[in-house]
Amino acid sequence: MAGVEPSKTRQVYLVLRDRIAGGRLDDQGTLPPEQALAAEYGVSRVTVRRALAELEQEGLIARRRGAGTFVLGAGGAKPIVADFSDVLANLVAMGRETAVRLLAFDYREPSAAIASTLKLNAGEKTQFSVRVRLIDGQPFSHLTTHVPQRIGVTYTEADLAARPLLSLLERSGVQIERATQEVTAVLATPDVAAALDVEVGSALLGTTRTVFAADGSGVEHLSALYRPDRYALHMEMVRTEAAGVRRWATVLAPAAGDRITKKAS
Amino acid sequence: MAGVEPSKTRQVYLVLRDRIAGGRLDDQGTLPPEQALAAEYGVSRVTVRRALAELEQEGLIARRRGAGTFVLGAGGAKPIVADFSDVLANLVAMGRETAVRLLAFDYREPSAAIASTLKLNAGEKTQFSVRVRLIDGQPFSHLTTHVPQRIGVTYTEADLAARPLLSLLERSGVQIERATQEVTAVLATPDVAAALDVEVGSALLGTTRTVFAADGSGVEHLSALYRPDRYALHMEMVRTEAAGVRRWATVLAPAAGDRITKKAS
DNA sequence: TTTAAATGTACAGTATATGATACAACTTGA
DNA sequence: TCAAGTTGTATCATATACTGTACATTTAAA
Predict the structure, then answer these.
(1) Cβ-7 Å neighbors of strand C
(2) CATH 3.40.50.1580, applies to A8-71
(3) Distance measured from the CA of protein residue A174 to the C1' of nucleotide C23, in angstroms
């Protein structure tokens, strides 16, 4: 099975990048010399240099001829740190410009898994859409949604390109009550990689959300993929104790601009 | 920067394996034909075949000449679906056997990033540990922790191998109050890949948690990496409206075995 | 039975990755 | 100033990866 393993250059690159990210450096911000790295990883110096060149281009390290290779502090642009309680509201409140690219909009027969999650009737179609959301012109999320057709007909292609789906659903009169969400990690497939401007095989943060109405019927099935360098989920938690059992409880994120003030309704 | 990207065979292999693991298949257990995959990924059919050969050798797919390529082990073992509010308590309550492998235990100078996150005094060392947690004998999480040395000395290597760190911290008298947590996706580096028994370059769910005491001092910095095929974060949310602003609020997961009964204290 | 479509096999040419080596240019400290 | 150590550049040889092509074998449906 030749060719399935990562190339040596890539392995060295990954290891070094990880060491830098984790701050696991021998002494103060200095990487070992190329010869030492080559010996440590059992590869040629040329290979080490290729990995270092990539790290340098990404702005993670600086190399000075004759002196050495140095890790640059405070790496690069930090991701948007979004509380899951209301991502979009936060972004807007932060004054960041967001835009949406609508890649698909049609009605189709959903897969069995989605049909059962949304509790659809047999043969019921869904409104299907794929959107890419940009912040300051840069793509950061890839959203695939399924909405039961009877609800999906209440909005148009133009609506979806202009407003968040959730607000369109509430406009249609649906009583949104609860949702379940799962978070995992997946690799970028070619189509998603192209839409998000990352390489195939990059790690993406994936969330799957199912939204239910007050009557228990499924309203929306959302599969979202995020670039981890531009988007991270954030949670604030407090330690609670009830009936002798200690656990964590999440704290509702303060509205943007506010500060931890907790006024009831 | 040649050579830093994964080889094409590997990209195809990773993406396909990820698709299979995530059950993201077009129709029922059948993979698209090799020609279609080659076109989709922009590689030659030979390359697709190399990736498929590896997947076949790993027992993930079966190929039948003239018929097609089929995904085996329908659905496979589903991941543990853990509510972040108390992962371990849930696992134990579910009657699953968990074990810990202690890979590192020492005291060291933390990186500047960790020192500032924990608000350490200049030169203050941390108790450093790396653990791998297993469920039913299978590794599913890789935990790297930093604890200020003054707190870290209250537990031993044996303690850490036997009990959750959080309970050791609370045993030491620390008043744990709150924590912040971020969730992202990362690629498996060689060391983590070996510990979790995955391949280099696999997608992992990563969480970084910082725990604070009542006096505001940092108590623990945790970097956790999870296998997404064995572990997924789950959240239940309800739609709330306050002062005309609609948003999501998380629901505390019911204790295992319970059902949504919400008894105060 | 026929036909289309799928996987299996083979081979040769090209592109890329890796290694080995040598030397130049620069920095640091003795 | 000198010497040791470090990164930068260049070149050639070899190994591996990738592609394109052609054809064989098997399956499944018309």
Answers:
(1) A 7-10, 42-47, 50, 64-67; B 2-3, 5, 31, 33-36, 46, 49, 52, 63-69
(2) no
(3) 75
Cβ atoms of A10 and B5 closer than 8 Å: yes
Comparing alpha-carbon positions, the chain A residue that sits nearest to B175 is A239
Q: Do A84 and B235 touch (CB under 8 A)?
A: yes
| pLDDT value at residue B241 | 78
Most confident range (mean pLDDT) of A83-92, A104-113, B84-93 is A104-113
| Positions in chain D where some atom is under 7 Å from a protein CB | 4-11, 16-21, 25-28
Phi, psi of A155 (to 5 degrees): -135, 155
Q: Tell me the Cα Rg of chain B.
A: 22
CATH superfamily of B80-237: Chorismate lyase-like (3.40.1410.10)
A169, A207, A235, A246: best mutation site toward chain B, by most B Cβ within 10 Å? Answer: A235
Q: Is the pLDDT of residue B208 over 80?
A: yes
Q: Please list every residue in chain B whose beta carbon sits closer than 8 Å to the beta carbon of residue A9.
A: 2-4
| Average pLDDT over every residue of B182-189 | 87
Give the distance, in angstroms, between residue A42 CA and nucleotide D15 C1'.
17
pLDDT at B87 exceeding the cut of 70: no
Report pLDDT digits (tens) over A120-178. Answer: 998 899 999 999 999 888 899 999 999 999 999 999 999 999 988 988 999 999 999 99
Closest residue in A to B50 (Cα) is: A1
Measure the CA–CA gap between A215 and A22, rounded to whole angstroms. Answer: 48
Backbone angles phi, psi at B60, to 5 degrees: -85, -30
Task: Check A200 against B41: CB less than 8 A apart.
Answer: yes
A80-239+245-251 fold: Chorismate lyase (3.40.1410)
Chains A and B form CB pairs within 8 A to the count of: 243
In 3D space, the residue among A263, A74, A4 whose CA is nearest the CA of residue B117 turns out to be A74
Task: Convert the pLDDT of each residue in A237-256 to its tens digit.
Answer: 888 877 777 777 777 655 44
- pLDDT at position B30 is 87
Mean pLDDT of chain A: 83
- Percentage above 70 pLDDT, chain A: 82
Residue spans per domain, chain A = 8-71, 80-239+245-251
Residue A56 pLDDT exceeds 50: yes
Q: Write out pLDDT tens, residues A28-55.
A: 678 999 999 999 889 999 999 999 999 9
List chain B residues with CB under 8 Å of A171: none
